[in-house]
Structure formats: structure tokens, C-alpha cells
Amino acid sequence: MLHLDLTLLLVLVLGSAFVVAFPQDALKKSCSLSKYRFLVPHELKAVQKMKEQFEDIMLLSDRKCNTRLFHRKWRVAELSVPDRVMLVEAELDLATAMLGLPTTPGFAKTRQRPLAFLTQVREDLRGCMATEAPSHQPSGKLRHWLQKLQTAKKTETTGCLEASAILHLFQVLNDLRCTALQEQCT
């Protein structure tokens, strides 16, 4: 019995020393977005189903939106990798915020899976920015787009922001793929 108590005490002491010697942050994996190079087909199908259902809802409304947030004069491939991460993170912030809005029960169910997936991606990107480029300053192109995003959030209706975010989700996913590839892409 005494031997078991000493063994348990030794394990606890060594375990505590290990945690102190290697803080939690040091145990985290390095930033790797490689799992987003090729998106899982069932995630893409869930996003496509949600987008199609949203388009059907849009046909019934008379929304007129002026936002051209996702129409840019530059390609994502022109940005540095840290800029790409910042861009996709901002796009995902908008998308997840819009998918989190109250809606009809049928559409709420359809968007659950895409929302969970996009939220996980956003958290992975935040982790990358925190570990890889915590003090990165955006380039002029990205800074201008981020300002455009902030202006749109203040001036556009929630319905227009929601429509823009959902209808351009595949562009966001392509931007994510380009970021994960960390090389030239179209």
C-alpha cells in the first residue's frame, strides 16, 4: 500500500513538473492549415445545400443590396500568407456572424453543419495568427478591403450582409484553400 502511495505521489510530482516545464502553449501544434487544402466533400455539400436553400428564400424576398464586398480588383494569390489568413479570418467572422442570426426553423437546421465547420476553421485561423504572425500589419490592399468591410457592417442592412456572406461562401472557401496551399492559386 505504501509503495502504491509513493508511486502515485511520484507521478503527481513529475506530472506537475512537466506542466511547469512545458507550458500549455508550448504543447500546441504549430500552425498547420494543410487540412484545408482539399475540403471534405460532405462539408461542401452541406454548404451547397444551405446556399441553394438560401437562394430559394431570396427569390421570395424583394431585397435590393448594393454591397459589393466580395468583388475585389485583386486576387488572393497577390497577398502574403499572413494577409491571406487575415482576409479569410475576416470573411469567416462575417459569415459565422450572419449564419448565427435568427431565422426560420428549416433554414436554421440546414445551416447548423456549415456554421459549425466555418466556426472551426475560423478558430484554426485565429490560432495561426496568434502563433505565426501575432503582430502582422495588413498590406494596403487588405487594409483597404478591411475598411470596406467595416463600412459595410455600419451602412448595409443585416439582410444584405447575410445575403452577401452566404452567396459568396464558396469564394471564402476558395480563399481558405489558397491560404492553406501557401502558394500561387487562382
UniProtKB/TrEMBL annotation:
<dbReference type="InterPro" id="IPR038326">
    <property type="entry name" value="IFN-lambda_sf"/>
</dbReference>
<protein>
    <submittedName>
        <fullName>IFNL3 protein</fullName>
    </submittedName>
</protein>
<dbReference type="InterPro" id="IPR029177">
    <property type="entry name" value="INF_lambda"/>
</dbReference>
<dbReference type="Pfam" id="PF15177">
    <property type="entry name" value="IL28A"/>
</dbReference>
<dbReference type="GO" id="GO:0007259">
    <property type="term" value="P:cell surface receptor signaling pathway via JAK-STAT"/>
</dbReference>
<comment type="similarity">
    <text>Belongs to the lambda interferon family.</text>
</comment>
<keyword id="KW-0051">Antiviral defense</keyword>
<dbReference type="GO" id="GO:0045087">
    <property type="term" value="P:innate immune response"/>
</dbReference>
<dbReference type="GO" id="GO:0005125">
    <property type="term" value="F:cytokine activity"/>
</dbReference>
<keyword id="KW-0202">Cytokine</keyword>
<keyword id="KW-0964">Secreted</keyword>
<dbReference type="GO" id="GO:0051607">
    <property type="term" value="P:defense response to virus"/>
</dbReference>
<dbReference type="GO" id="GO:0050778">
    <property type="term" value="P:positive regulation of immune response"/>
</dbReference>
<dbReference type="GO" id="GO:0005615">
    <property type="term" value="C:extracellular space"/>
</dbReference>
<feature type="signal peptide">
    <location>
        <begin position="1"/>
        <end position="21"/>
    </location>
</feature>
<keyword id="KW-0732">Signal</keyword>
